[in-house]
Amino acid sequence: MPINVAWAERTLVNRKELNPDGSPEEAFGARLRSTREARGWTQDELADRMGYTGRHVSGVETGRKPPTRRFAMSADAALGLEGTSDTFERAWGEIRHGALLEGFPEYLGHESRAVEIRLFQLGVMPGLLQTPDYARAIANGDVRRGTIEPEKAEERVAVLADRQAALVRTRPPTMLVVMDESCLRHSIGGPKVMQAQLDRLLDFAEQPNTVLQIAPYALGERRPFVLPVNLLTMADRTMMAYAESQLQGHFERQPTVVLPLLAAYHQLQAEALPQAASIDMIHQVRRGSP
Description:
This protein is an alpha/beta fold and 290 residues long. It has 2 domains: 18-96, 434 Repressor (Amino-terminal Domain), CATH 1.10.260; 104-128 and 171-287, Endonuclease, Chain A (2-Layer Sandwich), CATH 3.30.870. It contains 13 helices and 6 strands. It has helices spanning 5-14, 24-38, 43-50, 54-61, 69-79, 88-96, 104-111, 132-145, 150-166, 182-185, 191-205, 255-271, 275-287, and strands at residues 116-121, 174-180, 210-215, 229-233, 239-244, 249-252. The longest helix is centred in the middle third of the chain and has 17 residues, at 150-166. The protein is elongated, with a radius of gyration of 23 Å. The protein starts with a helix and ends with a helix.
């Protein structure tokens, strides 16, 4: 079939030049276009594979329409990028979570697919177990201190809701959580918020895929971690770790780093209260007992 030269010339003239350095959204769009064109697909052909319209794909490629997580995951499936280290879902996470600590967006991209999640937290409840009111109280505290803007506070709460929703699956991950006693004793948002948050912990502990333990103050120097630690096990049994301080986060894949953290976590589980005793402590705190 002969090529319509006039149409082709007009298409090239109308083709918007993309600036990957302009914004994270433009970088996402430029990469989507180049990856699509490398396969010889039109926007409509990619859209058909993704379950979107060609107009929608065009809007994302040119930066007029921000990508969503669903869009990014659909692009990964269509382009055969699922399970790789450089997915569009990860790029979406960098757009959505650009203000978060280094390494955390990459961690989030794997957390939603992990088959086992091990958490250690101190000071505040683990994010995956926080109620919306508890999470909002923490974010609002940052607003009052002037460390973030109000819209960023709401974004943090929305990010947390997305993380929690991603774990509601037909086969949810096994979750092993050890919390320092300070998580229970540190009041956030007032009595009503704390009561609901403690109830959330009790509900969590009743699930068949969860284990909840408290590391009591009496553990003292036997507690192996002084910072929060997250450990992920993926379906292929590879493991990843994420740890952070107040100002710095670090995501790690190397077994020489991750395996010692796993060994330390096992020691922590052995030293922490069993789940039954941990639940008793939660009930005591809920009743206001010392």
